[in-house]
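User: Hi! I have a protein structure encoded as tokens and I'd like to know what sequence might fold into it. I'm fairly new to this, so please keep things simple.
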């Protein structure tokens, strides 16, 4: 591993990043989706990932969730390799206990909510804390209730997903992710499947979360207005790399690269 690696662009790498991609390459057959990606995200930082379709944005999140494996390079979370461990000075493939520990540090909210349809909102938020973290049911129920209240659903605890609007389902999904007390929270185009009038309520929950919680956030989004307002840093992806990145205001107001300008003109 190379400690001198810096992310592309002018932003300096955080000294102790919460998330770090170093030289990460990911291929699907002949297609190179991520091409030597370097990305370091500081603890508590909120990073928005934007860019054209197919540029590898979602793959970054899927790799962090260990839903995919890298072909080259290293991913670290809180200083520890995600899928490998150091043993006798060598990097070896991690055992299941390490993977489970690392996965527990990361929560993800998906585009299509992915709630358990046969469970109520409350049960959706209790399931993993009980089965994975081993929390007592009473404690899990209390915490799930608090989180659902926080996302504005205190009166929907006993509703099943089918009885909730898309925006409400997505808010349950956010509460469910938080119930695992992750250090890192990933959002994958969480408003893309929602009618425009329902986007606002989900974005507003994420905005409040950002203020109230110190969790590190990585967000793939097509909502440029939200990225601009919410993110500490915006990374523009193109062809599996970060072409340009910087503070949200600077990147949107004065993009340096012609490709970034072209993209922003097309989507804003
Ligand atoms: P983005 O989120 O920027 O739209 P993705 O990370 O989802 O891009 O995907 C990047 C490229 O990888 C796309 O061309 C996509 O079709 C391809 N891809 C993603 N997942 C797979 C897979 N499981 N098998 C083959 N190709 C895939």
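Assistant: Happy to help. Inverse folding works backwards from shape to sequence: for each of the 268 positions I chose a residue that suits the local structure. Here it is:
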């Amino acid at each position: 591993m190379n400690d001198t690696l810096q992310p592309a662009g002018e932003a300096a790498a955080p000294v102790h990043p919460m998330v770090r991609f170093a030289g990460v390459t990911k291929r699907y057959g002949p297609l190179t989706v991520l091409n030597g990606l370097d990305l370091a995200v500081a603890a508590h930082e909120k990073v928005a990932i934007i860019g054209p379709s197919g540029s590898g944005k979602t793959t970054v999140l899927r790799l962090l969730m260990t839903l995919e494996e890298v072909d080259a390079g290293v991913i670290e979370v809180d200083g520890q390799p995600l899928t490998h461990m150091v043993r006798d000075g060598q990097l070896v493939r991690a055992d299941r206990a390490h993977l489970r520990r690392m996965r527990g540090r990361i929560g993800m909210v998906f585009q299509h909510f992915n709630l358990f349809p046969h469970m109520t909102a409350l049960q959706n938020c209790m399931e993993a804390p009980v089965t994975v973290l081993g929390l007592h049911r009473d404690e899990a129920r209390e915490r799930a209730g608090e989180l659902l209240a926080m996302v504005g659903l205190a009166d929907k605890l006993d509703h099943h997903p089918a009885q909730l609007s898309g925006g409400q389902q997505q808010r349950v999904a956010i509460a469910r992710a938080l119930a695992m007390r992750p250090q890192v929270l990933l959002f994958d185009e969480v408003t893309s499947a929602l009618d425009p009038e329902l986007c606002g309520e989900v974005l507003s929950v994420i905005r409040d979360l950002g203020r109230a919680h110190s969790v590190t956030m990585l967000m793939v989004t097509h909502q440029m207005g939200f990225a601009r307002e919410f993110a500490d840093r915006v990374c523009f992806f193109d062809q599996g790399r970060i072409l340009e990145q910087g503070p949200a205001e600077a990147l949107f107001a004065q993009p340096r690269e012609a490709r970034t300008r072209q993209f922003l003109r097309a989507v804003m």
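A useful reference point when you look it over: Residues 196-212 form the longest helix (17 residues). Feel free to ask if any position seems puzzling.
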